[in-house]
Amino acid sequence: MTALDRLCAEVCHANLALVKHGLVTLTWGNASAILRDEGLVAIKPSGVSYDTLTPDQIVVLDLSGKVVRGTLRPSTDAPTHLALYNAFPKVGAIVHTHSSYATVFAQARREIPCLGTTHADHFAGAVPVTRQLTPGELTEYEHNTGRVIAERFANVDPAAIPAVLVAGHAPFAWGPTMAKAVDNALALEAIARMAHATLLLRPDAPTLEPHVLAKHHDRKHGANRYYGQP
Amino acid sequence: MTALDRLCAEVCHANLALVKHGLVTLTWGNASAILRDEGLVAIKPSGVSYDTLTPDQIVVLDLSGKVVRGTLRPSTDAPTHLALYNAFPKVGAIVHTHSSYATVFAQARREIPCLGTTHADHFAGAVPVTRQLTPGELTEYEHNTGRVIAERFANVDPAAIPAVLVAGHAPFAWGPTMAKAVDNALALEAIARMAHATLLLRPDAPTLEPHVLAKHHDRKHGANRYYGQP
Amino acid sequence: MTALDRLCAEVCHANLALVKHGLVTLTWGNASAILRDEGLVAIKPSGVSYDTLTPDQIVVLDLSGKVVRGTLRPSTDAPTHLALYNAFPKVGAIVHTHSSYATVFAQARREIPCLGTTHADHFAGAVPVTRQLTPGELTEYEHNTGRVIAERFANVDPAAIPAVLVAGHAPFAWGPTMAKAVDNALALEAIARMAHATLLLRPDAPTLEPHVLAKHHDRKHGANRYYGQP
Amino acid sequence: MTALDRLCAEVCHANLALVKHGLVTLTWGNASAILRDEGLVAIKPSGVSYDTLTPDQIVVLDLSGKVVRGTLRPSTDAPTHLALYNAFPKVGAIVHTHSSYATVFAQARREIPCLGTTHADHFAGAVPVTRQLTPGELTEYEHNTGRVIAERFANVDPAAIPAVLVAGHAPFAWGPTMAKAVDNALALEAIARMAHATLLLRPDAPTLEPHVLAKHHDRKHGANRYYGQP
Questions:
Q1: What is the SS3 string spanning chain C?
Q2: pLDDT at B110
Q3: Is B129 strand, coil or helix?
């Protein structure tokens, strides 16, 4: 089994995990991962049912979008994934879903504020929303979706905030590995659902105090992190 | 196996899928499909539990409502289905449910606005609400429910907006095939749930920009659609 | 197997169905049924886990509350059930749960208005709320809970509105048979959840037009009902 | 099997029950229990997946925090658990989760008012919220989280109100036994979800009348309790 075979198996497994965790309805979602050394991206085929998805159906592209393995069309969102891999050199995997509450914030064109430690454990601040694409940007719609995300992260560290809401559309999440990207997509939906309910209960709910936010993020992700096993 | 046998099997399977996807509680729902060449409609029997539903219990009617196969009474909503098949010549299958959030919009007598691309992928604009039936229209209640839906679509393309909310009642969804009609019923509930949560978070949430709405609908349904496999 | 054995089996099965349908958390619920000819009521034992409930654990009482079969204590709510069987001579079975949204309306001390046909199919009008018990009525708390329900139905037909919300507490539902009582408890939770979401979306949502309410209720329950099989 | 082996098995089982009941997402939660005679606490290891958790992975600490059994790091929240065992001498087990609606109230920095008998059956009054920790208290963050909880309970009986919301963080629940602590965590989430929905429906919903609150709590927990089996 080559590294590329393993990548395709991981990407297949991640796509199925999205359904199992209730993040994907119908075919609304796709996961991909990259072999940085070889510049190859493995991604879900377009519009294929999750019920029958197998590793050999995963499509492999180079970073210019050329299919180098597989007989099916790649996800229509592949150019968005490629633009993100090009813009964020440390990202190893990307997950796109229309998970309910993250999508609700994207539709409300509202960032998800950091209201608690659950949020801070995964995202070191508010999860941002992009601007909407202009009519002129629709020519290369999916590619420009990636560009608009990258534009939004001009002054944001994608390792510290590994997710974004595309305005009027839905979330993308990412991580250094496929497993971390899936966890971040799952965490994103959970914190979006809780932020939604918190804001309905108390519209002026305070954001988490910066010292607690930093503490929680650091104990999982900082230089001296002590969460989990060594 | 005849084409009619296949239709009955598909209709039985679709009815069970509605339960599996959580769109139907108790016996609140029914699915039907039509063989256009023969003018025959297969539909769920009335009030029969989904637990024990089998293809041979599916009732077959002609377009005038006469039972041509089956020993059980057809769904009480059969005249609504027939009215829709007569009014919408390209519709191949119809799904009626009382799925929670689509029903909530029907009860609020409020159309579901297009707030995002998930909506636009399935419905090319707001999902409309009918008017309420008059007391005089109750004589042929179920037939007139179909007529009132058709009236509401006088200037709406039922292929572009394959669902409706009956005021104070619940949704109907449809499609060219049984599988597409079930997908549209499932998509309808998902977009209703997200629109509901979006409007609670931001009552003045903007509808999706028309250029993005058209782009998303066209990539799945337009002449040059490129979503899915060729 | 005697009629009483069958009753105990039905009551056991109904209690388990409440858990399966998500109406009961922990031990917050109980179902009972009556043999009118013999004046015997079968009910769940108190505080027994649903995981291990068997028909022979079901407790049988006479209408005065005396245990005539079984070695376990009956549900603490047994006196409420008995008071209802005494007050409503046509009721054959009773279901008490703390199902989420019915309990929410009970806590808000607000009746569930009839906002749609799903409601009208099961309840011929608003589901009422009782008054709170006075301090003096706590001496025989569970018995008086039943009395306060009966008081609320002085001018309401318990066959037409087979459920009530006890103020600050939770719902009771009933029916002519155990199966119908469970269906009514399930329908109650579904219409409470949809009414809640409807009222959040549109606080002044209109109640269902009386002519449509009567039509829907009559097609399932009226003298000329035509829903279901003959 | 020693008493300590049994404790580890119970703690493992409780951690898995939290996932089964939907109280824990990813690794956001941990359960512990104490052998008071030996001063030993068994707790979940940090960041270990619930999918593969076994009793021999459970870590045993003394009350000063020294690991006396097990090869994995204990939960990062272990110092909070230890502080609570030291502050509340009658507590036998503790459950920490980020369950959705309890966390929502913690994020809104709002106590959960007692709005109904479901609440009163488990908690003899509002479930309180702590103050936020100061920057100076972050040095021993987890230990001080326990101290801030104990501070909040200076005038509250932890046996009567067996749960707390840590401001901007999430809930802790406890009980005399591991099973009771899990039940309280489950009850806490259920009453938080219902309180949330009640307050959205009616922001000025009345708290339960004190005489009914006392009656309900006493029939389960009072000197003359009569709920359950003798």
A1: CCHHHHHHHHHHHHHHHHHHCCCCCCCCEEEEEEECCCCEEEECECCCCHHHCCHHHCEEEECCCCEEECCCCECCCHHHHHHHHHHCCCCCEEEEECCHHHHHHHHCCCCECCCCHHHHHHCCCCECECCCCCHHHHCCHHHHHHHHHHHHCCCCCCCCCCEEECCCCCEEEEECCHHHHHHHHHHHHHHHHHHHHHHHHCCCCCCCCHHHHHHHHHHHHCCCCCCCCC
A2: 98
A3: strand
Q: Measured between beta carbons, which residues in chain A are less than 8 angstroms from residue D110?
A: 201-202
Determine which of D194, D216, D221 to mutate to test the interface with C (most C C-beta atoms within 10 Å): D194
| B171-to-B92, B94, B200, D56, D196 alpha-carbon distances in Å | 17, 11, 21, 53, 28
**D20 inside 8 A of chain C by CB:** no
**ipTM attached to this prediction:** 0.96
Q: What is the pLDDT of residues B89-113, one digit of tens each?
A: 999 999 999 999 999 999 999 999 9
Of D45, D72, D106, the CB nearest to A116: D106
Q: Report the distance separating Cα C73 and Cα C65, nearest Å.
A: 11
Is-above-0.90 flag for pTM?
A: yes
Instruction: Walk along chain A (230 residues) in steps of 10 and give the mean pLDDT of each run.
Output: 94 96 91 97 93 94 96 96 98 98 98 98 97 95 97 97 98 98 98 98 97 89 83
Distance (Å) from the alpha carbon of D222 to chain A's nearest alpha carbon: 33
Using only C-alpha atoms, chain D has a radius of gyration, in whole angstroms, of: 17
Alpha carbon distance A218, A212 (integer Å): 10
